[in-house]
């Protein structure tokens, strides 16, 4: 078995070879001579200069270059509606640079309203200050995009390396992140890769049981986006299951202190500008590609009653709470404690499916989590293909509704709604497969090889001290009793 230790060399663990452990990749290798041979001893025999991490960095850099090339039309002709939609090269960077005063030296939050958290405002403002001159000339707009694209490429590389190191003996799983079509297509739409990077590094520190650095990274990530709080919620569920609360308290406290330290100066300097992000998020209507927006489109066509903004404000958090309650039920009733990445993926996916808005770049949030939760290339590629179709459908639809563009480039509403539904079904399918893995670890690509939770840090190998029983005949699990050894 590919997980076994080689005789005579116990100091270095043998790596899991994707061409042996994944059926899809094994079939692809037939054109190149088949899977890697058993005598190659990966992780023991030196690969020379082509270490796993160096190859992953190279793949990530090539993917970043491909992402910039996709923006080639706009880089050459400018970002103007509706062509930046039809050329599928839209990015928020040029629009925000021109419309939020960045081109004229205004600093986000401190100098006005900005609909992003403080660390994103800091990145947006500092990268604008790096540009010489003033005004929103074509050259300055292009330079602003390029500077942010380069920095996001660096963030993507760090994300890949962190994912590889979290994966321990499965570093090649990080190739899903390095080559993800979602990152190539959506990596430079907005600054979300900064959040993804901080979460990945935070999970690496947590897996290494460095709880304070992990909390600091989670706090910084929450200062760029609110969804990292769901990773802390996953840690909470594992703390309940194991009865070990110190990891939660230390990590959570470090995250809270860090978030406060980052936000307090901005709040003190301009409270109205600082709080605008929270007001904007609470007051916004249902956004493009959300289930609520798609329903209203169908309702308008079929003459059904639509959803008012007040109804969406009620339904979105209600459905999120219900899904989170179901995930908590899964975490507390499974025969064996779920892995951290599994719970994190389920919670973030639940947020994506119920949120008032779904932007194409939100797919970035799930990619590293899936590489850790369920590293199976077939499911990953099918999901990414569907997300790619949705990505294209969004731009064709936006070109029509925002600019009344040429009809030959437009996408009729039913096909756009179908693309939104396909994206939701694909994410729900991944959630179902991960839930199945939790209840039956023989299907879990990680645990099927007698590994507990390489991502769980202090929870890895911990006994289950609390579990809700689904059968009355079963004896309740008491504190101190490990059901895995019963």
Automatic annotation (TrEMBL):
Spell out where the chain crosses the membrane: 55-74, 114-131, 143-164, 176-206, 212-240, 247-268, 314-332, 344-367, 413-432
InterPro entries annotated for this entry? GT87, UCP010361
Q: Which GO terms describe its cellular component?
A: plasma membrane
- The primary location reported for this protein is membrane
Could you list this entry's UniProt keywords, alphabetically sorted. Cell membrane, Membrane, Transferase, Transmembrane, Transmembrane helix
Query: What is the membrane topology here?
Result: Multi-pass membrane protein
Task: Provide any one GO MF term from the record.
Answer: hexosyltransferase activity
Where it sits in the cell: the answer is: Cell membrane
Give the UniProt family note: Belongs to the glycosyltransferase 87 family.
Q: What is this protein called?
A: DUF2029 domain-containing protein
Species source reads Arthrobacter nitrophenolicus
């Amino acid at each position: 078995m590919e997980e076994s230790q080689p005789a005579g060399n116990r100091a270095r663990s043998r790596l899991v070879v994707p061409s042996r452990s994944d059926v899809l990749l094994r079939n692809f290798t037939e054109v190149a001579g088949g899977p890697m041979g058993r005598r190659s001893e990966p992780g023991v025999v030196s690969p020379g200069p082509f270490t796993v991490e160096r190859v992953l960095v190279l793949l990530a850099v090539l993917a970043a270059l491909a992402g910039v090339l996709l923006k080639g039309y706009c880089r050459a002709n400018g970002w103007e509606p509706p062509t930046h939609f039809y050329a599928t090269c839209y990015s928020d960077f040029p629009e925000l640079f021109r419309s939020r005063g960045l081109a004229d030296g205004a600093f986000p939050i401190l100098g006005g309203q900005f609909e992003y958290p403080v660390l994103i405002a800091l990145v947006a403002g500092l990268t604008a200050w790096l540009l010489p001159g003033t005004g929103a000339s074509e050259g300055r707009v292009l330079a602003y995009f390029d500077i942010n694209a380069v920095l996001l490429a660096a963030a993507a590389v760090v994300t890949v390396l962190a994912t590889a190191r979290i994966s321990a003996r499965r570093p090649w799983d990080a190739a899903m992140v390095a080559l993800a079509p979602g990152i190539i297509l959506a990596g430079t739409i907005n600054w979300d890769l900064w959040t993804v990077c901080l979460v990945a590094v935070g999970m690496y520190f947590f897996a290494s049981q460095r709880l304070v650095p992990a909390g600091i990274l989670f706090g910084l990530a929450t200062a760029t986006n609110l969804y990292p709080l769901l990773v802390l919620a996953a840690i909470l569920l594992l703390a309940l299951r194991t009865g070990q609360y110190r990891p939660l308290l230390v990590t959570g406290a470090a995250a809270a202190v860090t978030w406060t330290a980052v936000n307090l100066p901005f709040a003190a300097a301009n409270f109205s500008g600082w709080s605008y992000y929270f007001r904007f998020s609470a007051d916004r209507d249902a956004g493009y590609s959300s289930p609520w927006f798609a329903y209203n489109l169908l309702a308008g066509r079929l003459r059904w009653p639509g959803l008012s903004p007040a109804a969406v404000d009620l339904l979105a958090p209600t459905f999120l709470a219900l899904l989170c309650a179901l995930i908590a039920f899964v975490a507390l009733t499974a025969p064996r404690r779920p892995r951290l990445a599994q719970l994190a993926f389920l919670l973030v996916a639940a947020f994506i499916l119920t949120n008032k808005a779904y932007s194409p770049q939100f797919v970035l949030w799930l990619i590293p989590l899936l590489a850790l939760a369920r590293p199976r290339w077939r499911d990953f590629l099918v999901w990414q293909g569907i997300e790619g179709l949705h990505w294209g459908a969004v731009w064709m639809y936006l070109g029509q509704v925002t600019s009344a563009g040429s009809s030959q480039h437009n996408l009729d509403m039913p096909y756009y709604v179908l693309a939104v539904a396909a994206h939701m079904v694909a994410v729900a399918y991944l959630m179902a497969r991960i839930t199945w893995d939790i209840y039956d670890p023989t299907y879990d690509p990680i645990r099927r090889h007698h590994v507990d939770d390489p991502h769980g840090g202090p929870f890895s190998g911990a006994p289950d001290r609390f579990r809700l029983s689904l059968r009355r005949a079963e004896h309740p699990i008491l504190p101190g009793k490990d059901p895995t050894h019963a």
